[in-house]
Amino acid sequence: MRDLVEIGMGRTARRSYDFDDIDIVPSRRTRSSKVVSTAWQIDAYRFDLPLVTHPSDAVVSPHTAVEIGKLGGLGALNAEGLWARHADAESALAKVAEAAKEGAAPSEVVRRLQELHSAPVRPDLLTEAVRTVRDSGTTVAARVSPQHAAELTPHLLSAGVEILIVQGTIVSAEHVGTGDADGGDGADSDTEPLNLKDFIADLDVPVIAGGVSDYRTAMHLMRTGAAGVIVGHGYSPGVTTTDQVLGIGVPMATALIDAAAARRDYLDETGGRYVHVLADGGVRHSGDIAKAVACGADAVMLGAPLAAAAEAPGRGLYWTSAAAHPSLPRSRVARVAGDGGPVDSVDLRTLLHGPAQDPSGTVNLFGALRRALAKTGYSDLKEFQRVGLTVRH
Q: What global pTM score does this model have?
């Protein structure tokens, strides 16, 4: 039975939970962390880590996408980001860093991002970025917003993209409008809304779509033929402002569990078609990754935790693509590493695999996940999704 609370006369609301509200329950059995697996597979693509990067220019360049692939994860390029708009993306990122110097007004940094994103997406630059990753031999993934998916996907496919991510702040399988589709991260468009079901049916590559925050929308996206559904909207404390700007948001633990329920029902509905659930947001520490999997996630999309890497193109800054929306930005530019940030920069390998000297759970993110599986007696991620949970109340 749903936990409903009365918030006023004649109006009730469902109680929901975030990662900070829950804990994982240990079991009677433990294992060595050397005999557990954190591997994850979507379609024909297998990864040693259940990691997909949030497609932010602050985290992913073509070169960091390659490095993340070699370390066991999946680096997702933003096909509408600076690498697709500027021949010298490094100089563009330097302008963001310059604008974000100590004492700068937050609005000034966002304005700089908006200016940089006002340049058009160039198919030649997009192709070059994708081919850099493809030529390395690692799996190639790229993100497009719903309103630009039809336009940019042919260029991405011809360049060699193997996994396509259709992602906005909030994505639905049904959009009602008069040609004013807004995928959440770009300008309003005069093009017809994307019919996601027809779009996916015409593609030969797996599509991951989202974000969603409730059972019904997750189920609708699964029925479009998506191979994976993104839960959340890249929420990162101190960075994203969707809840402040739009008043919309569902705590991640509840959103994931609801999406996992949709996945289970869809599996029964189709007689065995499994759709992966990706958690995008709410992860600050390694324990949150474990909690995301415990709530039903097959993989996590990480943004801010990876922005602390020395290789991150954002130079210790983090923002989501919603920061560059020309009329309604929904992300700040926040310092996450170095120069007064919460943590010091470390290399990507150490960030993901350790060893760690900091006890706060911001380094050795996936070594900690292995240890969580081992300490609770589970051998792989699918088993760990059945671990017991408690609520802190």
A: 0.92
